[in-house]
Amino acid sequence: MEQKAEKRNIRRIAAVGMVLVIAAALLLGSAPAQAAGGLVMSTDYPGVTAKAGEEVAFPLELDSTTGASLNTALSVASLPEGWTGYFEGNGSQISRVFVKGNDAGGESAAATFHLTIPEDTPEGTYDVLLTGDAGSGAADTLQLQINVSAEEVAQGQFVSQYSELQGPASATFNFSATLSNNSGSEQAYSLAAQAPEGWQVTFAPSGESSQIASLTLGAGESQGLDISVTPAANVTAGEYTIPCIAASGGETLTAELKVIITGTYGLQVSTPSGNLSVDSYAGSETAVTLSITNTGSAELQNVALTSTAPDGWSVRFDSAAIDSIPAGETREVTAYITSSTDALSGDYVTQITATANETTASAEFRVAVKTQTVWGIVGAVIIVILAYAVYRIFRKYGRR
Predict the structure, then answer these.
(1) Residues 6+ positions from 374 with CB-CB distance below 8 Å
(2) Which PANTHER family match (predicted)?
(3) Which helix (H) or strand (E) holds 393?
(4) In a 10 Å sphere around its CB, with 0-12 CB exposed, 13-18 middle and 19+ buried, how is residue 267 labelled?
(5) Which of 25, 27, 139, 334 is a good FRET partner for 265, with 20 to 30 A between their CA atoms?
(6) What pairs with residue 39 in β-bridges?
(7) Is residue 12 scored above 90 in pLDDT?
(8) How many other β-carbons are positioned within 10 Å of the β-carbon of residue 203?
(9) Rounded to an integer, what distance in angstroms lies between the CA atom of residue 307 and that of residue 317?
(10) 350 pLDDT more than 60
(11) 158 in Cβ contact with 201 (< 8 Å)
């Protein structure tokens, strides 16, 4: 009997032990997962494609999951034969990085791992293993994968938010673009534009007024650009494509911008010499050659000539209507100005106006009226005759 009781006690103890083991396993299984070792080392792009002979840069972030700050040693645990690499921080080669915990702000620590691929590396996929170790079990590893390929890989982007703008010839067209370096290494880009003759294209960092001709972007960096396009002074209506180029040592990126000039309208009334003064005699007709110029960027239709002159004056044109004047061109018309026969010597103003369907322009001409020379001679003769007559009268009757 005693042996049977002892066996039952042993079975009870074993059963209780099993329950405790299962309960402990369940409790441990339901506990929140912690980052291995309390340190996390990461990069946004752990797998990249590059060519043999290139240097690839991996921006790294290190975070403490323990809440405490960690003085972390950095090392390369595994590297393909012949490859070289180093850690860089704040412009210097480093071997350790300080990772702030919650007690010091809790911000991520940043570093960059630079990897050089030998020139003779065959195409294929290669692994690199990095290690961060802060001691006391706080450690992490990061595996990088590099696909070595002989083919060119598009590593950047140059795009405009709005690639097509429309406006008059007098406008300045402002485009917003973004230049991105998607490669694993720093790139220096030179900026240029292939614009029509007489056009001006400038580049400036977004929100800044300083014009630039080049800029440098780190691996994975992007920069907003303000591109200002000013058309030539004599531009005509139409569509114009302006390729903007960002060129580095490894690639050439192009953003094509389009400007649509809707045209401007302008007229000018003048003379071939620019002189707006003429001489005339009372009652006589004076011919004046007019220059009617289209100063806009669009063709003008149905240009009519009219005049405003002093009372008693008249103005006629050899052609009072012009069917059309293309942009930038001039048409010559002769105006015949006839002054009044009663006009006294002096300056008079005659206004000539050119009116098109789209715009109008005027010019004021100063007409200097002079007395005819023959009438001056006649007047002088009359005065002489009258003086001689008075003289004879005095001679004849003065003696008496």
Answers:
(1) none
(2) ALPHA-GALACTOSIDASE NEW3 DOMAIN-CONTAINING PROTEIN, HYPOTHETICAL MEMBRANE PROTEIN, CONSERVED
(3) helix 373-398
(4) buried
(5) 334
(6) 64
(7) no
(8) 21
(9) 10
(10) yes
(11) no
Own/partner long-range contacts of 161-165 (Cβ < 8 Å, ≥24 apart): 163/255, 163/256, 163/257, 163/258, 164/257, 164/258, 164/259, 164/260, 165/257, 165/258, 165/259, 165/260
Catalogue all structural domains in the chain, each as residue range(s) with its CATH number: 36-148 (2.60.40.10), 156-261 (2.60.40.10), 267-373 (2.60.40.10)
Identity of residue 281: Y
For 18-60, what is each residue's pLDDT tens digit? 444 444 443 333 333 334 568 999 998 899 888 898 889 899 9
Is pTM, for the whole model, over 0.70?
no
> Which of 380, 286, 303 lies closest to 338, judged by CA?
286
Return the structure tokens found at 347: 């300056």
Which tokens is 223 given? 């920069």
> What is the spatial distance between Cα 111 and Cα 78, in angstroms, rounded to a whole number?
18
H or E segment to which residue 2 belongs: helix 2-29
Structure tokens at 34: 């912690």
Question: Can you tell me the distance from the alpha carbon of 119 to that of 315, in angstroms, rounded to the nearest whole number?
Answer: 87
Contact call for residues 221 and 155 (beta carbons, < 8 A)? no
C-alpha distances (whole Å) from 99 to each of 35, 37, 45, 70 are: 15, 14, 21, 5
Structure tokens at 338: 């006839």
- Cα–Cα distance for residue pair 277/285, rounded to 1 Å: 15
Q: Taking the CA of residue 385 as centre, how many other CA atoms within 13 Å lie in the half-sphere pointing to its CB? A: 6
Contact 98, 30 (CB under 8 A): no
C-alpha distances in angstroms, 49 versus 87, 115, 185?
20, 12, 11
What the block records as the tokens of 186 is 């720093």
Q: Identify residue 361 by its one-letter amino acid code.
A: A
Q: How many helices (H) and strands (E) does the chain have?
A: 2, 28
Q: What is the number of residues in the chain?
A: 400
Kindly report the CA angle at 88 between 84 and 94, in degrees rounded to 5?
95
Which pLDDT tens digit goes with each residue over 164-192? 999 888 889 999 999 999 877 789 999 99
For residues 41 and 132, the answer to whether their CB atoms sit within 8 Å is yes
